[in-house]
Amino acid sequence: MFNLIFLLSFNIALTIATIYTFKTKKYLYLFIPCMLFLPNYFGISLNNALPTFSAVRGMFILLYIYTFFNKRRDLNFKKILKNPKTIPIPYYFLGCYFVFRAISNLYYITINADAIKTIFLIVFEQLLLLISIYLLAPTKEELITISKIVVWTATVLFVIGIIESFTFFRPFDALYTSLRAMLNDHYVRLGLLRSTTTMGLPGFYGNMCVLILVLILFLYNLTNEKKYILIIPLNILAIIHSGSRSDEIFIFFVLGLYTLLFCLKKERIIRLLKNTILVIALITIFILPFMICSPKYRYFYEGNAKSILMEFGADFDLNEEAPEGIEGYGTNYAAGSKSRIVQFTGITYTIDKNPFFGLGSGADMRNDLHYYWNNTWYICHSYDVGIVEIICEEGILGLIAHIALFIYIMLISINLWKQNKLVSKYFILYMLTYLVTTLSTANMYSFLILLVIYCTNYRSTNNRVGGGD
């Protein structure tokens, strides 16, 4: 009964929000968070040869309709074709991303239905999206508002994720309407459920939290409002309750890089220390009562800390002190980073088979993907490392495509440096954070495209392609 009520309520609320944002011409404020956080399993399976028609894809269609009726300016194609010099250099690299990915997948188009799906998604969910938002030309203020909405939406997911871990109650399972099997798994680790909310897997949820941490820090530096510092303890607790060791380590990467980029002056260092003490104090206030009152929760938090230390050479038996009724650490006890390192052998296998075009989209599901372990090549069905996914599926061409995209982001950041150092640094911080998160999961393209949206639109209008008339 709860599932039905939640599903109906959610659909009604989403419909009302869509109508309202259409009428007020603020659809991007709804679309962007839905693009990031709505699960793909919230949809309908029309045909196995086609991607699931998820609610998010329905919202893409609405965005394109919205753009058609509300676009603020047109791309001047005639002017661009007559004078290609009007195209800034970074856009050539952005174009290379789409061209090389398309070529890599076209190689398999006659023998692999997944290649057709991938080309469709690249065009439908990336290229058309960037063109649409470019035409809508959101202002810097609107992009900042979108960032705030994304952060507060994520904050709700932080809270729900923490509650989910303690209670084993997963409210967003009610959104599973697709008849096709999709990512929506759950695992128990150290006696508590690993949080996922709408992200499908704990690792994706943890990565989401790490990427949103960059946006939280951005908004804090932009507004100097303490409320964003108060979100950080929830963010870190959500990462802990995701049970993702890699993301717990990534927290230190983000904060270390943030310190190097933004906190080298004395007054900034002092402010950073004060905020760090506040965050640690709030986390301690939350965790300590649980650890004092319950051996189960003490085992969970101590086990999390020990599991991270084990990644740096410490030796603990995490199952040894498990309270009665708790099986122990759970899945992937000893593998940790080793399981990710092994996946790099898939690159060797791919280069040997087809270096330029890879094994084709969906290779993991077709038994074409192999990893080398204990002197044997094993068939595997998952990617847990983004670069392995890129090369194994799309080969050297796919790798070149993604390098071109990151060059685009870097060039935009450099061009923006003189105009706005703060934003430029955050583009770099977000990009490096995204690259680090790909060491623990497959690519989360919606979060990468979010950065491209910011890069493409967060600059003066006289730098627009075909603009400046």
TrEMBL record:
Transmembrane segments: 6-22, 27-44, 50-69, 89-109, 115-137, 149-169, 199-220, 227-243, 249-265, 272-292, 396-417, 429-454
Entry annotated with the keyword Membrane: yes
InterPro entries: WaaL-like (IPR051533)
Presence of the UniProt keyword Ligase in the record: yes
Keywords attached to this entry: Ligase, Membrane, Transmembrane, Transmembrane helix
Top-level taxon: Bacteria
Molecular function per GO: ligase activity
Family annotation (PANTHER family): O-ANTIGEN LIGASE (PTHR37422:SF17), TEICHURONIC ACID BIOSYNTHESIS PROTEIN TUAE (PTHR37422)
Entry protein name: O-Antigen ligase
Source taxonomy: Bacteria, Bacillati, Bacillota, Clostridia, Lachnospirales
